[in-house]
Amino acid sequence: MDYLQVVASTPSCHPLTWHTGISNLTFSLIISNSVLAMWLLSTARAELHYFIGPEVVPGGYAILSHVWGDEEQTFSELRALQKTCSEAGLNPRDHASAKIQRFCELAEARGHKWGWADTCCIEKSSSSDLSEAINSMYRYYSMAEVCYAYLCDVPTGNLLDGPIPSSRKLSTQEAFARSRWHKRGWTLQELIAPDVVVFVSQDWIILGAKADFPTLLYNITGIPHGVLTLVQEPGELGIAHRMSWAANRETTRPEDEAYCLMGIFDVNMPTLYGEGRRAFRRLQEEIMKKSVDTSLFAWHKRYSHEDELVLRHQVAAAPTGQCPMDHTTKVNLFAESPKDFRWASSVTYYGPPNSSKSFDDRLRPLKVPAERLPTFTITPYGVLSSVLILHASRYTYAQLLCSDNPSPSDPSTKIILLLLVKCGAAHVHTQSLYHAVGLRFISSIADFGISSWELEAEWSDIYIIHEPSRSRREHLGAANASLTSPFRISPAALLQEVKAAGVVSISHSKLPQPWQGFAVLRLYFQGAHPATHMHIGAPPWYFTISLGCCNAESAAGDPPGARWATVARGTLRQLPHRDGEVLRGANATTHDCALDHIDGWTAHSRLFPNIIDYRLDDSEGAGDLRRVADIQLSFTPSLFPAAGTVHPFELHAEIIDFIQIAAEGSLLRVPGDDPEANRDSSRGSSQSTASGAAQDPLLLAGVEPPFLPQVPGPEDGNSGSSFSRVAVSQKNSLFGQLRKRSRSLFSLSSKSSPSPSGSSAPALPLLPSDTAR
Q1: What is the pTM assigned to this prediction?
Q2: What does the pLDDT read at residue 104?
């Protein structure tokens, strides 16, 4: 025998044979699960073949990136087709799904004998094979010769072409910017990992490579120019920055929000479908174990000095032995999902305290102790954190060694501190247990608003709560537990009603049990700016719905127990009283009996104007372009059984969007419902003049296109710190969308002004003073 023949059994018992020139040598080879094995398609016949790793594939392989459709060909289906065609003497590729067939044809035409697609090259019926493939996915893509990104919703054309003037059709560039491919979680690593990513249209025509359009991709995804052009490794950027790339992406399963990021952060962990949001917390634990980058914790709400004063009042009002913070809300060290990092793209980890003299100088009056790195260890009690603690008056901060700018020498750069609040419900009182509440940005000690001698700095070992103490449930507990409750509320149903308007989460105040309405129930809504609302770097927005029963006879004659509801901007967590406190004799601080009693509303429905209000554009000469939204509350009898004579009300909410323009001394309001809807459906919806000619409401306001600024790329001097980016063409097309979607104009001046049709339009207030509207 002149050679060695080695036969290895694959998981499906398909033997593989190797040959070598070594003679008179025999041994057994066992392939363990640790080997990065994979199934590949032969591009000529779409037949599955097993390889022990991507390194041994002769000539390399092409790989497919795509958005899954309703019907995708699976591993078992392709294996069955392969067997049937083999018996009939047919080529399986000719009978495979259209997507697999076209991918194989494209790869073969470009000289690739092997290809990989996640739909049919993973044996998903085996949990171990699936977990191995998910953990290996980033490497699969990184070792491919080329990745073909199939965009099923992008027509063939030139990606360099901008919007098409006077056309109802999207240009290729606009369609590319809006493609679902950019919104899916798994496609993030499929864009970053391969050296070569080639985009193909819905007709399988090549559009270009990622290195050809770095600025366009940066505007869409936020991924820096250097990463897209292979000048910079993703790992060279901070954790918070990389997390921000996934903040605007969606996955079908909540667990996949974490699993699709494992390769980007170079971690591995078992996949446990069914664990829900805990998967993302496990991901952060794994990242924390192998990285010293503390920007992992720089995702919290940004606090101002005024916010801290309100927080101090809240903490002081907490009864002894009770925690002032809600343990189910975002007051933990770990984020709940990548969406929490939406505003963190500018956060930079700069290292130990003495690694940057410019930062040292700002803290020099504190006499910061010797340089050392903070450490974090998971324990059953919380995360044991050895960190530099700053005590400022009644506040406690942990230094995160992060800034809001990658340039320490820039005088505008701010140091980021983590605001901590001691937990009042700690079970082990000999140890300090803290909630991570928010972030404080400071340029110097003066930003604390106190003298330097009132500040102390020390390295300390503390425990920080890293996850909710109980699972966050989609119901309201005390509010819905009793049959005598005056309201029945489903946060999950409410979130579904307002999700399209940008609401990302709903939380609620604590209530006594049983709840009969005399303690105020507050629902806290947090929103993020939709991609079509082009405000760069804006923080989240909030509004609060308050519900209860009046505990006094009103002027209108309503007996005690009349149900009321109201809506306010912002969050009312900071009210002087405790959540759940019965406010006897204090109705004036909670509601107006004349306006807020639900039985007094027409059809139990009421509009609360101008609850959401933020600026859309910062360009000069464009006037003040804002998103303004009203909240419509309505109540219907609940179908749930009631124990008393009063049937509970079920709450419904609707957000009614407008675009408000201030230009040349006038204020105009343009309905802004669903900017993502089909643009064709809104054509012809504008108001017409008496002569029948369509009038452009934005031109009436004296606003000439283009009034939205271009988003600069890194080569234009942009540092990559903007939080919300869209394609330049999509950004400029907002003008056209507003024009086409405008159906009416309302003057916001004190007098009614003539409408384009010649009639008088009603005057609307800028602030919600006219609550009876």
Answers
A1: 0.67
A2: 97
